Structure formats: C-alpha cells, structure tokens
Amino acid sequence: MSKTSIKIKLKAFDHRQIDAAAKKIVLLARELNVETRGPVPLPTSRSIYTILRSVHINKKSREQFESRTHKRLVILKLSPANQKAVTEKISRSQLPAGVWLEIEVS
Q1: Which listed residue, 24, 35, 52, 77, has the most CB atoms within 10 A of its CB?
Q2: Cβ–Cβ contacts within 10 Å for residue 69, how many?
Q3: Burial class (CB in 10 A: 0-12, 13-18, 19+), 90
C-alpha cells in the first residue's frame, strides 16, 4: 500500500506564533500515529515599503517600513484511508491568530 503525503505550509509575521502552530500540528499528527517530517524552516520573505514623510516640500525625507513573512513546512506521510480524517482534523484545529495554513495533498 503506497503512502500519500500531505504538505502543510504555514505563514506568519511573528516567528513565535508560527513555531507554536507547527509544534501543535506535529503533536496532533503524533497523536494520530502519522509519520511526520519537519517543521522545516523555509526562507523568510521581506517586503520593504518607502513612504514620503512630507509630500509637498521635503521630497528627500522618506520613511521605510519592513514586514517579514516567516514560513514553515510540515510533511505528513499517511495511508490514503486516513487522509481525509487527518486533513479535517488539522484544518479544524485552533491555531494562533495570524497564522495562515495551506494544505496540499500529493
């Protein structure tokens, strides 16, 4: 019987929240007796925004803001019979606020 894999990609602005969410998913998977890999830290993406402080007079006076998006990947290996139950259980779990969850079944 071949095993299918579920890739769970987590995104958040705060690294502490994303680590807590990844730990919660790994504990939930171990509770369901599912083989896990991860959490694997993916590259952090940075977005820098430049805004003029004074629109009319001081064009050279600018202010820069930065937002970082931290990402983690958790891979679950399971049998096709358990796939639907595990994905529903993970999608219904209470994750910290500000954490985005993407589930990909392959």
Answers
A1: 24
A2: 15
A3: buried
- Domain with residues 4-105, CATH architecture: 2-Layer Sandwich (3.30)
Per-residue pLDDT of the chain (106 residues; tens, 9 = 90+): 567 888 999 999 999 999 999 999 898 888 888 888 889 999 999 999 999 888 788 888 889 999 999 999 999 888 777 777 778 888 788 888 889 988 888 8
* DSSP result, 22-67: HHHHHHHHHHTT-EEEEEEEEEEEEEEEEEESSSSS-TT-EEEEEE
The token pair at 68 is 């970082």
| Crossing angle between the packed helical segments 15-31 and 83-92, to the nearest 10 degrees | 140
- Choose among 41, 31, 37: nearest CA to 3: 37
